[in-house]
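pipeline stage [seq->struct] | target=SulP family sulfate permease | organism=Winogradskyella wandonensis | residues=547
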Amino acid sequence: MILGQTTRKNFTQNPKNDILSGLTVALALVPEAVAFAFVAGVDPLVGLYGAFMMGIVTALFGGRPGMISGATGAMAVVMVHLISKGNEIGIALDTPIDNLGLQWLFITLLFVGGIQILAGVFKLGKFVRLIPHPVMMGFVNGLAIVIFLSQLGLFKETVNGEKVFMTGAALWTMLGLIALTMAIMYGLPKLTKKIPAALTAIIIVAAITILGKLDVSTVGSFIRDGGGEGLQGSLPTFQDQIFGLFSTLQGHWDLILSTAFILAAVGLIESLMTLNLVDEITETRGNGNRECIAQGSANILNGLFGGMGGCAMIGQSIINVDSGGRGRLSGAVAAIALLCFVLFGAPLIEQIPIAALVGVMFMVVIGTFAWSSFRIIRKIPLSDAIVLIAVSAITVWKDLAVAVIAGVIISALVFAWKNATMIRARKRIQADGTKTYEIWGPLFFGSIQNFNSKFDVKNDPDNVEIDFVESRVSDHSAMEAIFNLVNKYEAAGKNIKLKHLSTDCKNLMYKASPKFKEVIVEDIDDPRYHLAADPEKFTKPLSEYNI
């Protein structure tokens, strides 16, 4: 009974809000999916099919109720080279194949899905917890800037076959409609929260342009200007022809597999980061590993039924959450409504002014950007400030995956450097003349040099004791440093004792050489932590180690 109640709660917490927010998201998905299809160099319907299949699978089976997935720019950019290369080869074949690049994309998505499912099965989704807060802030700031910049392309119109920015009355009309959309989204929640502000704004602005017969850019004109024929389409069909095209991949498997790994990584990073952000907004917790499996399954479905694939979408996810969408029903409604637009509602949806959708996305930008970063930038450590700015800049310059990986690496290096300088050695002489080194701080690959500099083998007395009670021996490099130190003291003819080593550390040293039983002092208060090292590396005699 409890399980059933939990399942229903995940599916919909508030049916009205979920349905209305899902419709709002569906409207916002249309130009995004079409635009990203143009970026990748495929037909707009391929982008719309991809958004539908990503949305419905992740909504029903993903790890984060209320999160929206679809065709994304981050993945579209990666697809461009694969599609163009495939099309070139398709034309050059003795029997030319039209759109071979698109067929290659479908094949690649099968591998993308497999990689992402394996990531979920092996529980790699948990590593999103390793992303530091400055990286998260840089991520949302950079993504807000990217969303804003992506909307600027919608301010262009076709003049004499060329795309140019609007001027004059067209520009002022566009700006006025955008301002009206944003004003409605800002003011309506102050009056009532029973209806989604974004959906209301889109309907009002669309009614003004349609009834007023204003000459503005619409979803339909945007598709036609990009070379598409319109939204009208049929249900996705099974792409059985791709299984007969594996022979065309001879000599190009490196391109397919490398693209698959990059797409899988970009998709998972963006999805898990979005999941983390929605977790913070809703003060709930999603399941990263389940999301990995759902994303992978959706991408396999895309490959089999002719979609361009994708991942979680932060802009649409925030629209959904802000509009009251919390359950799985909101994502399912968004996906099904998008398919209905393609099947039945194309003529109506094509009349929606682009200005209304741009206004919605501008409000998303304002809500996404971490404005508090300006306030705290001078209060946080310099290294964190550098990471925040770097991640924001790299997100805009390159893409999300590169930015997050770079931010984590920078943060890890800073952490390692700080810990490397924390190693200390308190020195004292006991009553019997034994010199004791009391080690404090972590002993790992980064702190070995400082650790070695604490000892004066040449001038130390004949009896030396090293106490590790306030230190932690962390890795193989630390073990090698201890081996090296013992060897030096014994080579100098001096007696050395090691105290308070952890149980696993002692066991590894005993395996390396029985003589360590004479060096290590057994104490009942020895540490109980585990050493991050490979036991097989310490099974040789001490004389065989390069120390």
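stage status: PASS
auto-comment: The longest helix spans residues 253-282. The mean pLDDT is 86.
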